[in-house]
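REQUEST ID: PR-0412
SUBMITTED BY: lab tech R.K.
PRIORITY: routine
TASK: structure prediction, single protein chain
INPUT:
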Amino acid sequence: MTDPTIRVRSPVPGDATAMAHVHVLAWRVGYRGIVPAAHLASLDPVARAEAWQELLARAEAGDGQPVGPGTSISIPVVADLDGRLVGIASYGPYRSAGGTKPAALSELWMLNVHPEAWGTGVARALIDHVEERLRVDRPEPTAALWVLERNARGRRFYEKAGWAPDGATITETIGGADLVEVRYVKQL
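STATUS: complete
OUTPUT:
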């Protein structure tokens, strides 16, 4: 048996549908029992693909850095496993999502992996890539991310990768439920 080949790269507009599929499925499986089932069922991969398509097309037409919500810049990356897109991550400047903002901070905005690729090293390859890009592109000494407090699998993964909660929390309403998010930080 050969080891799987994982490649992290910049996405292109043709990746939008696969990115949406990964995004929606990762949420539906990963947040089952945490986020209300009705909300997870309502996630629309077609609408998500259209949003990714627009974001990636703007990046391709512009300076290569898609504009995220507001004036912040979100930089997406994808991971292929044996040639199939199975993971997405996005990073950029810290979005003041609550809590006290540590000085000089960047943020891992999201990391989603297709459930069939869990445990293959894809998530680790994505987070390693993002951490390296943050060291180079955004030379702040600290990075942060937000993770649902009840997402035990995600929290274990981040802790194994060297991230630690810093005590900041926020409550976000998702699908009508108030869910607590915990901020994790890492010195880059």
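NOTES: The chain is about 35% helix and 30% strand.
REVIEWED BY: pending
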